[in-house]
Write a structure and sequence with these properties.
This protein has 811 residues and is an alpha+beta fold. It folds into 4 domains: 424 residues, Glycosyltransferase (Alpha/alpha barrel), CATH 1.50.10; 90 residues, Maltose phosphorylase, domain 3, CATH 2.60.420; 74 residues, no CATH class; 198 residues, Sandwich (Jelly Rolls). 29% of the residues lie in helices and 23% in strands. It is built from 18 helices and 36 strands. The strands form 5 sheets. Strands 13, 14, 15, 16, 17, 18, 19 and 20 form an 8-stranded antiparallel sheet that branches. Strands 21, 24, 25, 27, 32, 33, 34 and 36 form an 8-stranded antiparallel sheet that branches. Strand 28 and strand 29 form a beta hairpin. Helix 13 runs antiparallel to helix 14. It is globular and about 90 Å long. The N terminus is likely disordered.
Length: 811
């Protein structure tokens, strides 16, 4: 949470490496070391103010009330008891009770929240409260020796917990708890200018180095099997503040090889690992990259992000079932009351913004950020509690209902990260590049006062209730203004003082000009209702409109199975973002509280396929997710190195994976695509939809007979029905190919012209599990060397005229 903000502050009075800037009370601190490998930066929280009225501002206000309400003596009771100081306070309950091994963690979250609330509002009462907590923590740390602990130790539990984790004896997660306290101290230093917090923190860091230097590498690595939060992150962040190499060394004690090694190799080994134990390790890795420039750390972090968001993430942006990662692409099969722990998304958003700083061309990072912010973070606070109580899990089974924390008898982990999430909504709305480039990432009503520029940007909107937002500039100067156009926002429009600009979905709208006071930018982001299927079940789907996941409202009615949704019945109401399907209301998931709901639906157990099943434009600029332009939600995934390249997919040794069963049940079909073959190899595949080597349909640019071939079978290669072209497909040029099938007729077209047909082609598509572009069901066949574009799938046979027309439209 903290350090990315600090990277911005360095532009002020940079201090020499190895020294720590003197701080004045309440003034943000200055960092010693600039981040390496970043080309975008956050603005400090002090530069962004939320405007009232948005759900974010309302959530923030509730959390502000709570962190002001919490009693210092109760929260610090066990810290005092732990070092023999008297305390008459009533002990807390829940995970802060005197016998809970995680006690003390909430105080760390609370410190971070107070520091963020102060920076976000300027309200000194938050800082005053944080300062008072730091004072007590310093008193407790000073008594470490008296209490029989090593110098620098500070916790609400005895240091023997560390002995136990080192000895691999049963203990919950002592370093996890210390990390929260350390992060809270660092935030009080960086955001509230508390110098004592830095002193206490450096004492803890020295203690950590001392404890872990005594261990062998093997002992340390074994110890890291126990959850340790973001120890590598906070110590790296401290290193960036102090420049003291001891702090980097202390951070690297927490580099967990068992997790890092497969990630560095791009391998998904996450199955059956505790999910939120791993996310902070990846955040630590990207911070270690930014501190050292060692690219292996960046690879670990970016591979983790890709693997988790692509293969382990629910539609709301969250991950984990029962707190654990499951096998890749198991989503529909992992719906329960304990899905989507909130801490995981708090941490994934921290990771996402660090990765964006590393590569600010990646709109997909911000698309994920927005999806998770609205549908998990915003959705997990109870709006009817004045203290902003929080979900722990967010149930995603049909009939699930959200449950919440309370004032003093819960203190679950997600209650703590909830305090943090709801006090930093200003942190990712706007970024800059250190020069004149201003990124607008999120559409949250707010005012940015650009430090040192004399320019303010005011954003007025009721988005997502309204599909638009407006920016008003005050001040003047050249700004390369870049506004994120979400990947779903087909038809988006941007106007500067009424003059339309050229924009595209899934990219930044670039408005590079000299601005003057009163200039206005209007952004329109049309929101169509669309569906997304799960990777493991094409018929298990969620409904979205714009960035918002819609859930079915079921009141007190529990459900034993996913309800069936007929998409044709979805109708808007007079309330923005609210729809009906039959007798069921669809509400934004972030407004779904106090009643049972479903997020996922069965869309036709034998789904009536739409005539136009899927259409992949491949216009994305990054990431591995290819949108389905039909709106049917049949999202495809790039795998094995395939990448978006200039509005196409360069297969690059990899392939594209389409949803399972994409043509299951079809009695007729057409598949058309543009393809550019760079190297012609026998038996490579333009596409191959199958269940293995017994049932499949494919198009190869050259069979062993030397010509292009379409084949379809339901019982192995000996039973293939084929359409053999007169020649192989050409190389080095974009070529349009189409296969159509209806009744007993199959036709193969090249560049809009029929080249071959089979009048006895009766096989029909299977319920495929391996549905690929560029890859064969046969493991020995080569992958296609080339690129594809404009891939279309229909559940009917296109006419020859239609094929000619599609070809004529070009790529
Ligand atoms: Zn949690």
């Amino acid at each position: 949470m903290p350090v990315s903000r600090r990277t911005l502050l360095r532009t002020g009075a940079a201090v020499a490496a190895g020294s720590v800037a003197a701080t004045t009370p309440g003034a943000p601190a200055v960092a010693a070391r600039a981040d390496i490998g970043v080309s975008a930066y956050a603005f400090p929280l002090t530069a962004v103010r939320l405007l009232t009225g948005s759900p974010f501002a309302e959530n923030q206000a509730r959390t502000h009330a709570y962190i002001s309400f919490l009693d210092i003596d109760r929260m610090l009771h066990m810290f005092r008891v732990n070092v023999g100081l008297s305390s008459a306070a009533t002990p807390c309950g829940g995970w802060e009770s005197p016998t809970t091994e995680l006690r003390g963690h909430s105080t760390g979250h609370w410190l971070s929240a107070l520091a963020q609330a102060y920076a976000s509002t300027g309200d000194a009462s938050f800082r005053t409260k944080g300062d008072a907590i730091v004072t007590v923590l310093a008193q407790c740390q000073a008594r470490a020796g008296t209490a029989g602990f090593n110098t620098g130790y500070l916790s609400a539990f005895p240091e023997s917990f560390i002995d136990r984790v080192e000895a691999r004896q049963s203990v919950w997660a002592p370093y996890y708890t210390l990390h929260k306290i350390m992060a809270g101290l660092l935030d009080m230093h960086l955001l509230a200018g508390n110098a004592q917090a830095l002193t206490v923190l450096t004492g803890m860091a020295a203690w950590s180095r001392f404890r872990n230097d005594r261990l062998t590498l093997t002992q340390r690595q074994n110890m890291l099997d126990t959850e340790f939060g973001g120890m590598n992150e906070v110590l790296t962040n401290l290193y960036q503040v102090t420049g003291d190499p001891n702090h980097l060394a202390a951070a690297q004690h927490f580099d967990h090889a068992e997790i890092f090694d497969p990630l560095a190799a791009g391998t998904d080994a996450l199955n059956n690992y505790h999910a939120n134990t791993q996310v902070p390790k990846a955040i630590g890795a990207i911070r270690e990259y930014h501190a050292t420039g060692t690219t292996r750390y960046r690879t670990i972090a970016s591979n983790f992000w890709t693997i988790v968001t692509r293969d382990h993430t629910y539609v709301i942006g969250g991950n984990s079932n029962g707190e654990y990662f499951k096998a890749p692409r198991r989503i529909a099969s992992e719906l329960s009351d304990t899905t989507a722990e909130c801490c995981n998304s708090y941490n994934m958003l921290k990771l996402t913004r660090q990765l964006f700083f590393t590569d600010p061309t990646r709109v997909d990072y911000l698309d994920y950020y927005e999806r998770t912010l609205y549908n998990h973070i915003l959705a997990s606070q109870n709006p009817s509690s004045t203290h902003g109580f929080q979900c722990y899990y967010v149930p995603l089974r049909a009939g699930g209902i959200k449950t919440y924390s309370n004032d003093y008898n819960s203190f679950v982990c997600c209650h703590g990260t909830g305090m943090e999430s709801n006090t930093k909504y200003g942190e990712s709305i706007y970024f800059h590049n250190g020069g004149n480039t201003l990124y607008v990432n999120l559409f949250i009503p707010s005012v940015l006062t650009w430090p040192g520029r004399g320019i303010t940007v005011r954003q007025d909107t009721t988005y997502p209730s309204a599909a638009s937002t407006r920016f008003t500039i005050t001040g003047s100067g050249q700004i390369d203004l870049r506004i994120r156009i979400p990947s779903w926002a087909t038809g988006a429009q941007v106007a500067v003082n009424g003059a339309a600009q050229t924009v595209a979905a899934g990219a930044f709208a670039v408005l590079n000009r000299t601005w003057t006071s009163g200039d206005v930018v209007d952004v329109s982001l049309p929101m169509a209702v669309r569906r997304e299927s799960t990777p493991d079940s094409a018929t298990t789907q969620a409904v979205l409109v714009g960035p918002v996941v819609l859930a079915g409202a079921y009141g007190t009615t529990n459900l034993s199975a996913l309800p069936t949704l007929n998409p044709a019945t979805i109708a808007p109401t007079t309330t923005p973002l609210e729809y009906t399907t039959g007798s069921v209301r669809l509400l934004p998931f972030y407004r779904m509280h106090g009643q049972r709901y479903t997020v996922y639906w069965t869309v036709g157990s034998t789904p009536p396929l739409p005539a136009f099943v899927a259409h992949y434009l491949f216009n994305e600029t990054g990431g591995t997710t290819a949108a389905d332009a039909t709106g049917n939600g049949r999202t495809a995934t790039l795998a094995g190195g395939a990448l978006f390249s200039g509005g196409t997919v360069d297969l690059n040794g990899g392939y594209v994976s389409l949803p399972s069963g994409i043509l299951a049940g079809a009695t007729a079909f057409s598949i058309t695509t543009w393809v550019r073959i760079d190297t012609l190899t026998t038996w490579s595949r333009i596409f191959d939809f199958g269940t293995g080597t017994s049932a499949y349909l494919f198009l190869t640019p050259r069979s062993s007979a030397g010509t292009a071939r379409f084949a379809i079978t339901t019982s192995g290669s000996g039973a293939e029905q084929r359409i053999d072209a007169p020649a192989a497909l050409p190389t080095g040029a974009w070529t349009h190919v189409a296969v159509t099938s209806t009744g007993t007729l199959g036709v193969l077209y090249v560049n809009g012209v029929e080249v071959a047909r089979n009048t006895a082609l009766t096989n029909r598509p299977a319920n495929t599990t391996a549905t690929w572009i560029g890859r064969s069901q046969y493991a020995g066949d080569p992958y296609l060397d080339g690129a594809v574009d404009g891939f279309r799938v229909y559940s009917r046979a296109l006419t020859a005229t239609e094929v000619t027309t599609i070809h004529g439209e070009g790529r």
